[in-house]
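re: ur question from earlier - yeah i can do the single chain one, its not a big deal. heres the input i used so u can compare w yours
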Amino acid sequence: MNAAVRNALIVGLLLLTALIAFWFFRNFEKSSEEITLPAYGEPTYNALYALRETLIRDGVKAETRRKLDLPAMQLQPGDSVLMLDDPRLLPPAQVESLLDWVQFGGHLLLRVPDADEDLDGDEQGLLERLGVVTSDAAARCQVWQVPGQASHDEFCSGNRFTLTDRIRAELRWADGGGDDTLAYARLRYGLGRVDILGDMDFLLNGAGAGDPGLRDLPHRDLAHLVLAPNYGKGTTHLIYAMELPSLWKTLFERGWPVWLPLLLALLAWLWMRCQRFGALLPSPREDRRSLLEHVRASGEHLHRYRKSPLLYDAVRQAFLARLRRRAPVAAALTGEAQAQAIADHLQWPISRVQTALQIPPSQDDIALRDRIRLLIQMRNQL
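and the output i got, formated as tokens:
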């Protein structure tokens, strides 16, 4: 490559680079964007985490617990307790302890649960003791106005409730429309207060731009209202879950990145190995020869290949083995003396015994059969 071509290529590459840079900077510009990351850690299981941190920053002593633990909490008259879950699940002993504490200056905040025929109507229940009756009436949004802010709708979801005739509410927020269903009420109980809320969503952690949670000024103002009776006096105890979630439900909802691949791997392994399982019905049994047929076939094979003396020797060894057990003296002898001892024991002619003990010629099939027959008779008579 000469110098002129090389210089032309270099100039061309520089011009192409300049064109690409011009197009990029003309069509793209640097900008920043704020993205709310999903929650991790404690906010994923503690729905009141943001409320606790907000109270602590305001100088209020606040604690969160998974379940109500009265001995560990050591409630004092100026404390507040906010329970997120169903108060009907409390045992009678805890109900009595809570009401005694509220009567001497405590502040209790409860959320009305869904109507349930199996749980409602218990005279010893906390809601029944307070004169609260759950209702299945449809909820209507309540307008909450904060100075300097646009009107805000609250209690649009959740449940509604009514109060018995003997109960008077210090504060109440009714749906209107001619019925007595309430979205919020504050009851006076002795020296303390009990706030009943149809919905506590404004107190929970926010889920992003669509649900700002306590980042929204009207939500903070409403939270300050419901916590006002003992705000800053004592400790605010936040109970975010009275019941443990189901282990199987947790594994199904959160453990699927582990169990789903394992399940697919198991199914794939079973599919690969299914050929080892065999057919649905067993294969028919093949024809098999009996033991006697095997013995006969083995003898015919030896006789066919001129190994008849092996057959005679096997029968003779079987006879001698029994002779050693039944007549050891005769078995210890040899030659003519042994034949005479066997003949005396069997009461046979000695010539017949001698014939049976002599090895037959390899080609004489008649002599082979006769001597094997004699040996078998002699063995059976021992």
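The chain has a mean pLDDT of 85. not sure if urs matches, ping me
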